[in-house]
Amino acid sequence: MKSKKDNIAEYILYLWQLEDYLRAFPQQAYANTELMEIADMMHAEGIIDGGHLQLAQNALEELEELHDELLNSEAPYRAVILHLEPKLNILKAKTNTPLMSDVEACLTLLYQVMLLRLKKQPITPETEEVLKDATQLLRFLSKTYYDDHQTTL
User: How far is it, in rounded angstroms, from Cα 112 to Cα 123?
Assistant: First the structure.
C-alpha cells in the first residue's frame, strides 16, 4: 500500500482509487491481501455503495489541519490559495458537495481529471490551469507534511 508518510495526497488518491475499483469489481476483493483488507474495511464501515474509508478521511483531516496552519503562518501559501480559491469555488459549485474544503476540492479535481484521462476524454484549458495550481498546492502540502512528520511516522 502507498505510504501516507511519503506523500499524503497520493495516499488519499490511492485509497479513493481502490474504493472505486472494489465498487466496480467486487469479485476482485480476494485477488490479493491488500484488496481484501480494503474490502473488509469498506464492509465494516458501511461504504460499499459510496463514501470514503476512515483512513482516507483521517488523512484528509490531517492535510486540512496543516492547510489551516499554513494559512495562518505562511504569507506565500496564503497568496497561492487566494489565487486558487475563486477557481475552486466554481468547481465546488458544480459538485454534490459545494461546501467541501479547498483541500478536498483540489484532491477531487485531481481524481476527476485522472478518470477523464483514463477514459481519453478532453480536459478544458481552464481545468488544466486550475489543475496546475491545485497540484502545486497539494505538492507543497504533502512536502510540508512529510518534512513535519518524517521522524514521527
Answer: 10
The values of phi and psi at residue 14, to 5°, are: -65, -45
| Per-residue cell: 80 | 497561492
Question: Helix (H, G, I), strand (E, B), or coil: what is residue 96?
Answer: coil
Output the CA–CA distances (angstroms, integers) from residue 86 to 63, 74, 83, 111, in the order listed: 20, 20, 7, 20
> Which contacts of 114-122 are long-range, i.e. CB under 8 A and separated by 24 or more positions?
114/13, 114/17
Asked if residue 72 has pLDDT above 50, the reply is yes
Counting Cα atoms < 13 Å in the Cβ hemisphere of 52 gives 18
**3-state secondary structure (DSSP) of residue 126:** helix
Distance (Å, rounded) from C-alpha 122 to C-alpha 2?
A: 28
Residue 40: alpha-carbon gap to chain centroid: 21
**Tens-digit pLDDT profile for residues 90-141:** 989 988 898 999 999 999 999 999 999 999 999 999 999 999 999 999 999 9
Residue 28 is given by DSSP the state G
Contact 18, 38 (CB under 8 A): yes
Which one-letter amino acid corresponds to residue 60?
Answer: L
